[in-house]
Amino acid sequence: MFISNAFAAPAASSPTDAIMSFLPLVVIAILFFFMIIRPQMKRAKDQRGMLEALQKGDEVITSGGQVGKVVKVGDNFISLEIAPNVVTHVQKATVQTLLPKGTIKDL
Predict the structure, then answer these.
(1) Which of 1, 63, 66, 103 has a CA positioned 20 to 30 A from the CA of residue 11?
(2) pLDDT tens, 6-46?
(3) Contacts for 76 with CB less than 8 Å, ≥ 6 apart
(4) pLDDT exceeds cutoff 70 at 59
């Protein structure tokens, strides 16, 4: 009555069990990269290319919602004509979209 029951020791885990337990984490990391990080990097690269190719006469939309024609391009700033004889100076990085030529006339 004073002797406790003896239980068998649990089986030792094999190395394949450790690999199989980390496999879902690896798959999730790979999916995360291809579905979120990679498309974001591609969009950022396209945006940088668009800003570098910006030139006088292009029609753009800024992130603040201003629509205008580029009058002057500098290193960090551009001059944007938003109405006849009304020119604003905005940072180049605020340019969000490059519009097709003649879009402003249709507005």
Answers:
(1) 1
(2) 776 676 666 777 778 888 999 999 999 999 999 999 999 99
(3) 91, 92
(4) yes
In angstroms, the CA 56 to CA 79 distance is 9
CB atoms within 10 A of CB 58: 19
pTM: predicted TM-score of the whole model, two decimal places: 0.70
- What percent of the chain shows pLDDT beyond 70? 93
**Cα–Cα dist 13/51, whole Å:** 56
The answer to whether the beta carbons of residues 21 and 33 sit under 8 Å apart is no
Residue 65 corresponds to which tokens in the numbers above?
A: 């919602």
Query: What is the C-alpha separation between 98 and 70, in angstroms, rounded?
Result: 10
Tokens of 4: 């406790």
Rounded CA-CA distance 33/39 in Å is 9
Burial class (CB in 10 A: 0-12, 13-18, 19+), 25: exposed
